[in-house]
User: Fold this.
Amino acid sequence: MGIKTELDLLHSRRTKIVATLGPSSNDAAIIRQLIESGVNVFRMNMSHGSHEDHEATYEKVRSIANELNNPIAIFADLCGPKIRTGLFKNGQITLTTDSTITVTTRDITGEAHLIPSQYSALADDVNPGDRILLDDGKLELLVCSIDDTEITCKVTQGGTLKDKKGINLPGVAVSAPSLTQKDKQDAQFALNLGVDFLALSFVRTEADVLQLRKLIDDGGFQSGIISKFEKPEALINASSIIKVSDAIMVARGDLGVELKPEQVPVAQRKLINRARNLNRPVIVATQMLESMMENTHPSRAEVSDISQAVAEGVDAVMLSGETAAGSYPVQTVRMMARIIQQTEAYLFEENNFADLERHLSQMDTPIPFGHAIAHSTANMAKQMEAKVIISLSNSGMSAVTISSARPTVPLLAISCNPGTYRRFNLQWGTLPILAEDAGNTHPNKLARRVARDSGAAQEGDFIVLVRGFASNPKLNTPSITLLTV
Ligand SMILES: Nc1ncnc2c1ncn2[C@@H]1O[C@H](COP(=O)(O)OP(=O)(O)O)[C@@H](O)[C@H]1O
Ligand SMILES: C=C(OP(=O)(O)O)C(=O)O
Ligand SMILES: [K+]
Ligand SMILES: [Mg+2]
Assistant:
């Protein structure tokens, strides 16, 4: 896929698509189709699959993305202290409501009435009367008694339980740290592969994020961090967590178990607004097209859910089991792209993304420095009917600040750092451009050339160039330049 095709896509879809890799999508032909159907970012879930599997899939994605000249970004999602069931003899067991079962932390294979879990402190963390939720809360147990490694429970909500499904303990203070020993090993592995981001599960505080940041920095890597909001504590500490993260994810699967399900949509809205106000990309994840794991058509409620997230101004929507283990991975991505396009077309027609801008301008004054520049850029580009906004970024700050204003005019984000270039692909309405030259000496010339070569603008068209953002206030000298190609 050349840059012109990408540009056409950007004109028709600003909200990005994240797809999880797994057994249904580890084949080169499928990966190619997923990219051609609209995937912008792939997720490798470290909770499943071996390092060998992940490495093989990673190399396939990179080689196909290179071949297609597509700025696909890849992130590794660390397990975090997610407690899971172990393996069962036939891959699953059935739990009957009102029956008695045992959860054990012994290292065994599970069978009827016996659920293994590798989390060794489980028996210490729970008390009689606590609830244990299984598989994103679909099944529920009540703790009756604890004897060393054995937790005796009554099944209060039965059903089928498969291998390695999540265990949640709502209201129980889990002793495991956010970054477990396994996470550190998985992070090293993924950083060595060259992932663009690491996703940190079950973040509770800013310190959790900084611990991972240190691990990345100590290894001399540049990977970004996506903080996953899955705990009530994270919502309380949202601003401080967002500020030290490169992006966030509203991880609705675990969040909906740790909170009540009805609290999730409000948390989603608040997090989208908070992340945008702080210039950080935000992903909404989980069960977006869940029914398409087995069906070729989505439920009406799923379609509305995606449409709603787009209208709320999210940067990216994510597919999990749908592309990792579902029967129709490519059809699911196509469906997601269609839903996004239809909703965005309406929003642009109604000038509703501009309403989001107004929402932002309702923030306390003076509004943050970057927002003023970003909104002026968006407005000027629109008023002058500029063909494109071009940002020049070393760190990526100019591009993410402009993207957060959700401009009507497409944003071409230039960087000469391949990692920054790919990380741009998670951002709303941003088409990444990799340049050999950072444009420090001849920025106008570079901007004109990129606008022309990408087909975004022709001789005589207006373009708007933005550059000079920096996190150090003394070096922060953003400028807007109106250029004629
Ligand atoms: N790499 C993989 N290998 C095997 N199964 C996978 C893989 N990725 C996902 N799956 C399956 O798809 C389901 C949904 O995927 P996902 O949301 O990524 O996982 P989870 O919710 O378990 O963290 C998983 O529970 C698992 O059954
Ligand atoms: C995305 C999520 O995390 P995971 O799939 O790793 O549990 C979630 O909980 O919604
Ligand atoms: K995970
Ligand atoms: Mg989760």
Observations:
- Residues 403 and 428 are 6 Å apart (CA to CA).
